[in-house]
Design goal:
Blueprint: H1 5-19, H2 36-48, E1 51-52, H3 53-60, H4 64-76, E2 80-85, E3 88-96, H5 98-120, H6 124-144
Antiparallel strand pairs: 1-3, 2-3
Helix pairs in contact: 2-5, 3-4
Length: about 160
């Protein structure tokens, strides 16, 4: 008897999360001294920074206290600086340092190399099916307004 599609999707997502190491929240990026969540924060700040701690928390679907601790750690590492917002002195803006931007470039290049290897190991139609399927899954999850159980909504993502 065939496995129902929803059950197979569940199994595959769980297997991907497990095999990719995403269950290790403090996993350090290879060659870098940052966790996976810190790497995502660096990416957001390099793409759209500077950002307030609140805006970064919303983009990462993390609570403000977690982002505050993360920002303090990244500041200690010399990756970002926290500056008072000139328009609202009660808020901090997070801005990457030159080292933070250089670290983002290194991490982006490393991840891109992974994606190139993975895509090369798949047939072209498998790559196309994966892009189509993942795009659809992201769209459905975002339409629900919740990335997962008991978490805050994610920010809208550009359509592929």
């Amino acid at each position: 008897m065939a496995t129902p599609p929803a059950e197979r999707l569940h199994e595959l997502v769980m297997e991907f999360v497990r095999t990719s190491g995403l269950l290790q929240p403090d996993r350090v990026m290879p060659g870098e001294s940052v966790s996976l969540s810190q790497a995502f924060a660096i990416h957001e700040l390099d793409e759209d920074g500077p950002l307030s701690q609140r805006d970064l928390a919303e983009r990462l679907s993390l609570d403000k206290s977690s982002v505050s601790r993360m920002a303090a750690e990244l500041e200690r590492k010399g990756v970002l600086v926290r500056e008072r917002d000139p328009d609202n002195r009660r808020l901090y803006r997070l801005r990457l340092t030159d080292e933070g931007r250089a670290q983002h470039v290194r991490m982006s290049e490393a991840y891109h190399a992974h994606y190139v290897r993975w895509a090369a190991a798949l047939a072209p139609e498998e790559v196309e099916a994966l892009v189509t399927g993942l795009s659809a899954l992201v769209r459905v999850v975002e339409a629900e307004g919740e990335p997962g159980p008991d978490t805050s909504p994610s920010r809208p993502r550009p359509q592929a």
